[in-house]
TrEMBL record:
Transmembrane segments: none annotated. Keywords: Signal. Gene3D superfamilies: 1.10.530.10. Belongs to the transglycosylase Slt family. It comes from Flaviramulus multivorans. This is Lytic transglycosylase domain-containing protein. Pfam families: SLT.
């Protein structure tokens, strides 16, 4: 009998410990996340909004083909949750840089979502040779005033690359007649879109039969616009402090060669890695600058990384 009592006591103690452990795991870790949802993860068929547009140009959702293609991109981007959360985080950091440049050139704000689908707001590298947040090809960069070589590649300079993207988009709008076609041309080229419009005898993007990538292009942009504009509606939960922010910096003028960026960085109480994080357009650990061109190098404000 004593043995049985001991066993029952042990089982009871083990049960209490188990309950305590699960209680700890279930405990809220932040005052903003105190409410625990039951069945927190579910997969739902999404209701495509009745009215969607890009740059003020409506998406013709009454067309069943268009509706299905829009539904696909909303589903894919809603349920790719890890990527979606990263887009929210990066958008908070980079949209404040991109938005005023678009506005300065009279380009609709919706084009910031084009940068999202081009690169995920990273300094991406494509197999075709495009680089940076805006995925600019070498020839396009040089034609629009960017320095592109092994030593300096300004396609990685977000402000300058955004200026070039604006020039390209304005020219596309002038040539093709709509912002939607201008966006498509960013992917397929002005000549490519013009040729297909003529071959198929239509005047708009949504009437074109296109290859997989360009055929999904506008739908992906509109889907990201819809999701990033309505996080709660699509099940994304985060706090303001979860988002990324820009590190405050100041600019240092340099109009000579720099032989060693490691030593250069140390003069400003940072290391080479931090210097490169803020100036990814500097491609080598030195600056040639035989022409004595004026560069502005971003330096984080004193103590930020301390």
């Amino acid at each position: 009998m004593k043995t049985v009592q001991k066993v029952l006591a042990f089982v009871g103690l083990l049960s209490l410990c188990t309950i305590f452990i699960f209680a700890l795991q279930d405990a809220p870790t932040d005052e903003n996340f105190e409410t625990k949802l039951i069945n927190d993860y579910n997969v739902y068929a999404l209701q495509v909004p009745e009215n969607l547009d890009f740059a003020g140009e409506p998406v013709p959702l009454k067309n069943p083909d268009i509706l299905e293609r829009m539904d696909r991109e909303l589903l894919v981007n809603t349920y790719w949750q890890s990527n979606g959360l990263l887009m929210f985080k990066r958008a908070k950091k980079y949209f404040p840089v991109i938005e005023p440049i678009l506005a300065k050139h009279g380009i609709p704000d919706d084009f910031k979502y084009l940068a999202v689908i081009e690169s995920g707001l990273t300094n991406a590298v494509s197999p075709a040779g495009a680089r940076g947040v805006w995925q600019i090809m070498p020839a396009t960069g040089r034609e629009n005033g960017l320095e592109v070589n092994d030593n300096v590649d300004e396609r990685y300079h977000l402000e300058k690359a955004t200026e070039v993207a604006c020039k390209y988009l304005i020219k596309s709008k002038e040539d093709l007649g709509s912002w939607t076609l201008a966006a498509a041309a960013y992917n397929a080229g002005n000549a490519g879109i013009s040729r297909r419009l003529e071959e198929q005898n239509v005047s708009g993007y949504y009437d074109l039969l296109l290859g997989e990538e360009t055929g999904r292009y506008l739908f992906r942009i509109v889907a990201l616009k819809e999701i990033l504009s309505n996080p709660a509606k699509y099940g994304f939960n985060f706090r303001e402090k979860d988002l990324y922010t820009n590190v405050p910096t100041y600019k240092v003028d340099v109009d000579t060669a720099v032989t060693d960026f490691t030593k250069f960085a140390q003069n400003f109480n940072i290391n080479y890695k931090i210097l490169k994080l803020h100036n990814p357009w500097l491609r080598e650990p030195h600056l040639n600058n035989r022409s004595r061109k004026l560069y502005q190098i971003e330096i984080p404000k004193n103590g930020y990384y301390q």
